[in-house]
Design brief:
220 residues; mainly beta; Jelly Rolls; 3 helices; 38% strand; binds fe (ii) ion
């Protein structure tokens, strides 16, 4: 992705989050130089990969296949954090796909916090990590439902679903852009994601202009 495109997505995200009264922590608005000059101990932010996250999953077309995320809290698997939980806020646009994947360890609740409908297509997985044709049981707002393989669950604002490890899911919004929360176990994007297709989680970045705000992937 071009840095100019990421900057534009961050600007639009700030407007969208403000329109839903969703506030980010103060360091979300730091410029890259503020990170260099701060005297605060920001090691938890860096070690746990908190902050801005924009990806096109390597598609080259963010609007078709991509996701905006901001990790608000997280632990880590290297042991410098005591946290065993994570929270993210995401912006999912109409027909913008997050491709089919599951997590090996992370159990996550995906919550529609406002805007359009959030649609999630779900499958159980087989032992060789393909899509299973078995039905699966999921918890939607604490109510257990058994659904056929490949069912698309539609969540209206206020509704949520719990996704256990090894449950394949892909999602997109319908009607209008959706504000989506995630409450989960610790998130480790370097080891825990299994995508059905061979795709990348973090985009290569063409630095065509200076960054507005560092992405978590920039901390390295
Ligand atoms: Fe997921």
């Amino acid at each position: 992705m071009k840095r100019s495109e990421i900057n534009a997505i961050q600007r639009e995200a700030k407007e969208f989050l403000a329109s839903h009264q969703f506030k980010l922590p103060p360091w979300a608005f730091w410029a890259p130089d503020d990170w260099k000059h701060t005297t605060e101990d920001v090691s938890e932010i860096l070690d746990c990969m908190l902050g801005w996250d924009v990806t096109d999953f390597g598609s080259g077309d963010f609007m078709k296949r991509g996701l905006f995320l901001f990790t608000i809290r997280n632990g880590n698997l290297c042991g410098t954090s005591k946290k065993s939980y994570a929270e993210k806020i995401m912006i999912v646009r109409v027909d913008q796909e997050t491709p089919m994947h599951f997590h090996r360890l992370k159990m996550e609740d995906i919550i529609n916090r406002g805007g359009g409908e959030l649609c999630l297509q779900l499958y159980a997985s087989t032992e060789d990590e393909k899509l299973s044709d078995r039905s699966l049981t999921v918890s939607i707002d604490g109510i257990s439902r058994t659904i056929p393989a490949g069912t698309t669950v539609r969540l209206k604002p206020g509704e949520s679903i719990c996704l256990e490890p090894y449950v394949y899911h892909r999602f997109w919004a319908e009607g209008s852009t959706a504000l989506v929360g995630e409450v989960s176990l610790v998130n480790d994007d370097s080891t825990d994601n299994r995508f059905l297709e061979d795709i990348g989680r973090f985009p290569a970045i063409d630095e065509d202009e200076p960054a507005l705000h560092l992405l978590a992937a920039d901390y390295r």
